[in-house]
């Protein structure tokens, strides 16, 4: 079936309204992972936060979002994807307004947690709507290309927007800005085709919900705490071990549950597993890359926060080109592996360019930063559309929400792990270099730390390409990311 409602021009317009609304929501979810980072020093001063507590403005969002994603996917299927999408947008707007009006740290932290709660429903609902609305191969390619472009560019745009709003308006506008965007997206959903809730069985898998929320939250919190405390800290080790045990128990429960939160068939499909592995490792590398770009440009090159953010616009534009002009146009014409593996290798090449940097390097912007930003952006833009499509292609109707949630959870875990892991490696390499016999300057030690971590990111992306190739190659025999018709449930009415 190529359509999700009545045939003709009106149905086509309604499909593209779905894309606009879902893309706006995706921008909100991704932006809020980074936009507050730039505003945090100003918010800390205004609300009199302590240094020990300020991290909760970031961590509260990450924990709620990562911990509740699988539940959000299940709720989306049970209530209907469009209804869940509207609830998520409305709640996200309200939580953002509450955070912007915060009068003390606790109010800000609570609002950020609420943003994460509604984002956990919004993200899988949006991807599910896109999957069920665009089923024809060429249109599906364009739609997923635009969706991925927004996701790929969102983190970089968050840093730019955060810097501009904080410098020229107020840190509070880093939260208020979400309100008009969310409300416009809510208005756009009036033209989004309706879907039908699952309407079967329907009881929530409570043990699975509790185990997944606790397990994901523990792992994400461990990654966040590893950055300041180190991976050997007892608190970090306890959180990691506890999180892994909880997730193992979650898998055991899901294997036996009559209506599981995350059916294991979602993860055990070979090509879909390749998509999850690819996007997780891509986010591990890219979020470390964004962190070091911010540090290097500001601490070594002396850029202002706004200048550092604007430098990342190059990466955002390259991601836009990769996802729309390359991946979007080639979707359905080439197998997913022909986009995923070259994308991972292009991003790896971009990381490798920066490993050649030294504190004495000249013409850094044209010779190092621009090539690296272009290659990593193109790579990310080529990887996101086919992995998003593979993650949800061929799913039975009642499993689409779970698959969408698992895809978003992969991104969230990759981002949290990448920031913590690569920052720890950089800090250790910097300290070791400072203690070496050559008496390096602080700038030389910092650059050595950054390049060491980026060399690890380069290796991670090469490993991702090696793992993804055989997994996603299986899909090539069947052609584009579409499932056999017999696997599908009837597409809901308009």
UniProtKB/TrEMBL annotation:
Q: Matching CDD domains, A to Z?
A: MFS_MMR_MDR_like (cd17321)
- Membrane-spanning parts: 16-36, 56-73, 85-103, 109-131, 143-164, 170-192, 204-224, 236-253, 273-296, 308-327, 334-355, 367-392, 413-435, 447-471
Q: How does it sit in the membrane?
A: Multi-pass membrane protein
- Where in the cell does this protein reside? Cell membrane
> Boundaries of each Major facilitator superfamily (MFS) profile domain copy?
18-477
Q: What domain of life is recorded for the organism?
A: Bacteria
The alphabetical list of record keywords is: Antibiotic resistance, Cell membrane, Membrane, Transmembrane, Transmembrane helix, Transport
Keyword Transmembrane helix present in the record's keywords: the answer is yes
Q: Which SUPFAM superfamilies match?
A: MFS general substrate transporter
User: Is the keyword Cell membrane assigned to this protein?
Assistant: yes
Annotated coiled-coil positions are none
Sorted alphabetically, which Pfam families does this protein's record hold?
MFS_1
Name the record gives this protein: MFS transporter
Q: Which organism is it from?
A: Streptomyces litchfieldiae
């Amino acid at each position: 079936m190529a359509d999700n409602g009545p045939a003709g021009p009106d149905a086509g317009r309604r499909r593209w309204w779905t894309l606009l609304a879902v893309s706006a929501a995706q921008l909100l979810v991704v932006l809020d992972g980074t936009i507050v980072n730039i505003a945090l020093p100003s918010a800390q001063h205004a609300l009199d936060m302590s240094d020990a507590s300020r991290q909760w403005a970031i961590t509260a969002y990450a924990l709620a979002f990562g911990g509740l994603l699988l539940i959000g996917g299940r709720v989306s299927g049970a209530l209907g994807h469009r209804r869940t999408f509207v609830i998520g947008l409305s709640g996200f707007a309200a939580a953002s307004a509450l955070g912007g009006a915060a009068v003390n740290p606790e109010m800000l932290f609570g609002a950020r947690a609420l943003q994460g709660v509604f984002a956990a429903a919004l993200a899988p609902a949006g991807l599910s709507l896109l999957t069920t609305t665009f089923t024809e191969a060429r249109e599906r390619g364009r739609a997923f290309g635009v969706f991925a472009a927004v996701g790929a560019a969102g983190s970089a745009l968050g840093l730019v927007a955060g810097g501009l709003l904080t410098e020229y308006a107020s840190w509070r506008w880093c939260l208020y800005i979400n309100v008009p965007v969310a409300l416009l997206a809510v208005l756009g959903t009036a033209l989004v085709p309706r879907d039908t809730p699952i309407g079967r069985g329907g009881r929530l898998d409570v043990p699975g919900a509790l185990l997944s929320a606790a397990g994901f939250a523990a792992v994400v919190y461990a990654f966040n705490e590893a950055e300041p405390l180190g991976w050997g800290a007892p608190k970090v080790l306890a959180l990691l071990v506890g999180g892994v045990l909880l997730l193992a128990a979650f898998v055991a429960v899901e294997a036996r549950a009559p209506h599981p939160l995350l059916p294991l068939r979602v993860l055990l499909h070979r090509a879909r597993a390749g998509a999850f592995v690819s996007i997780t490792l891509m986010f591990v590398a890219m979020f470390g890359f964004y962190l070091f770009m911010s540090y290097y440009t500001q601490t070594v090159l002396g850029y202002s926060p706004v200048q550092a953010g604007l430098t990342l616009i190059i990466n955002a534009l390259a991601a836009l080109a990769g996802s729309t002009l390359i991946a979007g146009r080639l979707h359905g014409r080439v197998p997913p592996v022909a986009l995923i593996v070259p994308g991972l290798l292009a991003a790896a090449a971009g990381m490798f360019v920066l490993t050649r940097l030294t504190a004495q390097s000249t013409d850094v912007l044209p010779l190092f930063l621009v090539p690296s930003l272009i290659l990593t952006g193109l790579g990310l833009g080529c990887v996101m559309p086919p992995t998003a499509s593979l993650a949800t292609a061929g799913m039975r109707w009642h499993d689409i929400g779970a698959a969408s949630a698992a895809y978003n959870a992969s991104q969230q875990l990759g981002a949290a792990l990448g920031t913590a892991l690569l920052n720890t490696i950089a800090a250790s390499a910097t300290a070791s270099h400072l203690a070496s016999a050559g008496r390096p300057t602080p700038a030389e030690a910092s650059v050595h730390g950054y390049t060491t971590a980026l060399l690890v990111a380069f290796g991670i992306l090469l490993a991702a390409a090696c793992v993804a190739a055989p997994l996603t190659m299986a899909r090539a025999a069947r052609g584009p990311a579409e499932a056999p018709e017999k696997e599908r449930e009837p597409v809901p009415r308009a």
